[in-house]
Amino acid sequence: MTDCSCRYSAPQDASGPRLKALRRQLGLSSQAQLADLLACSRVSVARWESHGLAGEPPLLLRAALLALEAGILPQPTATPGRWGWAAALLTALHQHEHPSTPPAPPACPTGDRLRALIRQLDQEHTGGRNRLPIFVLRAALPAVPRQDLDHALYGLVGHGLRLSTLQEAHLYTTAQYAAGIPTAMGGPKFFLVLEEGHATAASRGETAA
């Protein structure tokens, strides 16, 4: 990669001022320093500086000018290694041209899957008392958006699930209490109760939904 030629066409305004701006952004004071960083011949850089370069530009010079225009030009480090800065430059351009799309949130379990998860967590955390606090379920599904889980829980109401409020809020932390589902009146829906013939809500200190 002595001359670093590439297939790109030269920018129409690849003039001295642009190269000076490039050197200034990189903290370089001379053509020689820029040529060393670009791993190109100093003659090539000098030709660009004097508007006399015919044909195609050196690859890393072209890439550096594009990065300068896009505002993503990486800064040289004290010990970048032979190709450290070049790798950072090309990576920045690639990420700029192909931005990654954040992954979609995982689907919230519904129906039988959600009931089964509530049953499992109730056994693990309450010993099967059938009064699982909602904050336990949220902790088990940290990537599921809150509103999606709330919607799924309301979808089970009347289909094997009941939501109940909390009477003794002092037994829980502020964060645990806030994990409940807000209601228009009274406290939040706090416990998940599977309707499978368990003890009544009154014996558990709950208020039915």
Instruction: Please list the strands of the largest sheet in the order they lie side by side.
Output: 1-3-2-4
**String of helices and strands:** HHHHHHEHHEHEE
Overall pLDDT level: 80
Helix content: 40-55%
Give the low-pLDDT segments: 1-15, 198-205
The biggest sheet, with number of strands, parallel, antiparallel or mixed sense and barrel status, is: 4 strands, antiparallel
Count of folded domains = 2
Instruction: Tell me the overall shape.
Output: rod-shaped
SS content category: alpha+beta
In total, the number of strands is: 4
User: What is the strand content?
Assistant: 5-15%
Helix segment tally: 9
Counting copies of identical and different chains, the oligomeric state is single chain
Radius of gyration: 32 Å
Could you give the distance between the termini? Answer: 73 Å
Give keywords.
single chain, 209 residues, alpha+beta, 2 domains, 4-stranded antiparallel sheet, 9 helices, 8% strand, rod-shaped
Q: How is the topology of this model organized?
A:
Blueprint: H1 16-26, H2 31-38, H3 42-49, H4 59-70, H5 84-97, H6 111-126, E1 132-133, H7 134-140, H8 146-156, E2 161-166, H9 174-178, E3 189-194, E4 206-208
Antiparallel strand pairs: 1-3, 2-3, 2-4
Brief summary of the model shown:
By secondary structure, this protein is α+β, with helices and mostly antiparallel strands. It contains nine helices and four strands. A four-stranded antiparallel sheet has the order 1-3-2-4.
Describe the structure.
It is a single chain. This protein has a four-stranded antiparallel beta sheet. Helix 2 packs across helix 3 and helix 4 (59-70) crosses helix 5. The longest helix is centred in the middle third of the chain and has 16 residues, at 111-126. The protein is α+β, with helices and mostly antiparallel strands. It is 44% helix and 8% strand. The protein folds into two domains: 16-97, no CATH class; 111-208. The chain has nine helices and four strands.
